[in-house]
Amino acid sequence: MSTPGRGLHGQVLDTLGPEITAGEYPPGSVLRTDELAQRFDVSRSVMREAVRVLESMHLVESRRRVGVTVRPRSEWNVYDPQVIRWRLAGADRPHQLRSLTVLRSAVEPVAAGLAARNATAEQCKELTECALGMVAHSRGHQLEGYLFHDIAFHRVILNASGNEMFARLGDVVAEVLTGRTQHDVMFEDPDPAAVTLHVKLAEAVRERDAARAEELTREIAVGALQELDILAP
Amino acid sequence: MSTPGRGLHGQVLDTLGPEITAGEYPPGSVLRTDELAQRFDVSRSVMREAVRVLESMHLVESRRRVGVTVRPRSEWNVYDPQVIRWRLAGADRPHQLRSLTVLRSAVEPVAAGLAARNATAEQCKELTECALGMVAHSRGHQLEGYLFHDIAFHRVILNASGNEMFARLGDVVAEVLTGRTQHDVMFEDPDPAAVTLHVKLAEAVRERDAARAEELTREIAVGALQELDILAP
DNA sequence: GGGAACAAAAAGTCAGACTTATTTGTCACA
DNA sequence: TGTGACAAATAAGTCTGACTTTTTGTTCCC
């Protein structure tokens, strides 16, 4: 997934990024470029490039005569897919999954409503195929196949919304769904009710029923929130 | 605003970033590090750091023997505050404002509902103060003062939601509100109805009425969408 | 025509010297 | 005692040049 080992600086980031996002260096900690370069056995130029990337993610701040200081979590670019991946791979994975699921619950219903208005015929077809795929893999421990179609389904919805901000959350949703299947919940087959809701949603989009599409997605979201014990009483 | 001129590579980005996000180099265009370094009159090391940052934003991809190729817009990290700022400063500013306003309309109602549950006493107080500030500056062309309190208001809501993903949209909302005041709409005093809604929203949060807070925010969002002629029939 | 060897191109890497901003400490002076 | 200016130390920032590596495109031979 993504782009592994695109150069030495990338390899450095693969270990330094997760360390920082895991909170291994508390906010305010100071790193020295030279020391880091030694530790990773790379030249200063390579290390500097890595630091620049971390800086652009607002994970650290580099200042003369001071060093590279770790920023407080509240300033991190938490929408950066790379940061999301690092955090999902670390200790606060549960916390991250919750945050993202709440975000999904806000965004996806609106996106579905827009999709019902804007989806092309091609997208409607894809949506139906995805839903059928989910049905086909909903029984008998075919979790990988189910996941695949689930991700594709939500990606089509987000893309069909016609809003680029929504569309770019496709990767985030994919990470959340993958994470959910791989680790936390879902030991057994997916909830049949959820499968039905997806089928109905595909239908609603096909029939241009925006209000119904939005409402159905809200129900799907409630299910996802409940799975993580995020109550909305 | 933000952090201007943090080193030579930053200055390069200040002009190269906007150029790319403005679509000046169409997707697939190839840039050469050496040429860029010459053009900006900086060393290759500095230029490389700049390219690394653009790469981490998924604006470009750097490959050996090929050069630095511009990626299609659909792959850009459009949630990166820097990218947002660049795009807002460029030609597709209207398009960007629409996308972001739709995003707001999805996120803020849910955030407000959560804020009604999770806001601290301190946050409730701040919210009320902001609302009062908006009222106080709502007449007589005090747009700057109104804007200031409007931004603060929405920032408090997003922070009080307790969800870090929502909280980090504070900057985005600030950019949108600022952009709206500075350029496009709002020649005259703000809509009195909007001001009233904000006051009521502060009240709803104070009274822990999540459903009402959510609904009021939805009404505010509808107003924002209408201002940009984004109809939701 | 297809495949292997070769050449060219551009990014990637490294090492070292030098510059500059910022902090911190010191010392003199009020 | 406090305050200001000045000096030293420090770590990032910058530049240069040489070298390596990967990828692409070409050419040549079968």
Q: Would you summarize the structure shown here?
A:
Chain A has 233 residues and is mainly α. Chain A is built from 11 helices and 3 strands; from the N terminus they run H-E-H-H-E-E-H-H-H-H-H-H-H-H. The first copy, chain A, is elongated.
Describe, in plain words, how this protein is organized in 3D.
Two copies of one chain form a homodimer. By secondary structure, chain A is mainly alpha-helical. Chain A folds into two domains: 68 residues, Orthogonal Bundle (Arc Repressor Mutant, subunit A), CATH 1.10.10.10; 136 residues, GntR ligand-binding domain-like (Four Helix Bundle (Hemerythrin (Met), subunit A), Up-down Bundle). The first copy, chain A, contains eleven helices and three strands. Chain A has a three-stranded antiparallel beta sheet. In chain A, helix 4 runs parallel beside helix 9. The first copy, chain A, is elongated. The mean pLDDT of chain A is 94. Chain A binds a DNA duplex (30 and 30 nucleotides) through helix 3.
User: What is the H level of CATH, i.e. the homologous superfamily of the largest domain in chain A?
Assistant: GntR ligand-binding domain-like
* Sheet having the most strands of chain A: 3 strands, antiparallel
CATH architecture verdict of the largest domain in chain A? Up-down Bundle
Helix/strand-derived category of chain A reads mainly alpha
Biggest interface, which chains?
A: A-B, 37 and 37 residues
Number of domains of chain A: 2
CATH topology of the largest domain in chain A: Four Helix Bundle (Hemerythrin (Met), subunit A)
The helix-strand sequence of chain A is HEHHEEHHHHHHHH
Report, as a whole number of angstroms, the end-to-end distance of chain A: 37 Å
Approximately what portion of the residues of chain A adopt beta-strand conformation? under 5%
Oligomer: homodimer
Helical run tally of chain A: 11
How would you write the strand order of the largest sheet of chain A?
Answer: 1-3-2
Number of strands of chain A: 3
Low-confidence segments of chain A, given as residue ranges, are: none
Fraction of residues in H or I helices of chain A? 55-70%
The average pLDDT score of chain A comes to: 94
